[in-house]
Each structure stands twice: as C-alpha cells, then as structure tokens.
Amino acid sequence: MTPLAKLLEAALFAAPRPIPLTALEALDQESSPAAVAAALDELREHYDVDGHGVELVEQGGGWQILTRAEFAEAIERAQVAVRPHKLSAAALETLAIVAYRQPIGRAEIEEIRGVAVGSVLKSLHERNLIDIVGRSEGIGRPLLYGTTPQFLEQFALRHLEELPRADELAIALRGAGNTAVVPE
To answer: What pTM was estimated for this model as a whole?
Structure first.
C-alpha cells in the first residue's frame, strides 16, 4: 500500500464515525484530491481482494471501515461489539455529580439531586461507568463511588482534569437553557 493509503487507513480505523472526504484530504496537505480518491480506491481494493472481514464504505457523508455485513449477525450474537447506550438525564446528572465530587456517597448524591439514586447508581455501576472506591468514615461506613477508566473512554477524556471546570459547565448549561444542578 502507498503511504497515503496507510495514513487514510489509520485515520479511518481510529474514527468512530464516517470521515468526510474533505477531512481525509486535510490529513496530507501535499496530496491532491485525486491522490486521496486513488488512495481510497487502493484501500477498498486491498480489503476486497485480500478477503478481509472489514470493508471500506462510503456512508453518512464520509468514509468508514466497517465489519462486512455477512459477519454482523455472528458478531452481534457473540456480543463482541460494544455499543454504548444512551444515558438518561437522571443517569447523566448522577454521573456528573460522581465525576466532580468523587469519592462521594449515595446520601450526598441524593442530597444534591433531591431524589433517591439507588437504581441509577446500580445502572451506572453495571455499565462500568462508576465503581465503589472505598467506604466513608461516617456512621455505617457507607460506600463511596468514583468514576472508572470506562467513564474516561466513553467521554473521550484522558483524565479527570479534562472535565470542564464547574464555572465553564454552568455557563454552557445556562446557554442551553438547562436548569440542572451543577456540582461545585
């Protein structure tokens, strides 16, 4: 494969969504649009001729490397492909509180949210977005929760310091017309 085809392959492999042609062309400023189109053809042919389990597909306004359709049912049945599920507003609010205040106990979260959060915490724990990180020294030594590496991965963060600062978050939420409680 040409170096440009390898570069496009790397970008397409890393992207969770289709990459528009203009973005692919921007990967190598010295390549012409015709050269990028030729490299895409080369990459598509590579997957087709060599019998790979993936293929290069143009869809959704861009290009993407996808599993071949004939393998989709087996992959879905084996549950090896993980698709993140959307979180409810209650789950997002609870997760944000945990992320900003960790380690934090259930009672503190319920005090902030004003509602019981037992089932939401269980759901977030089952999704591996939060985990038990210890016990409080308070009466009954309640469990303390913190975020997991899966949380960072799902929200494309390298570390918790990349979370927006509370003042930035408050401004963004006000701009969106949201009245959610913003952790300090």
So the answer is: 0.52
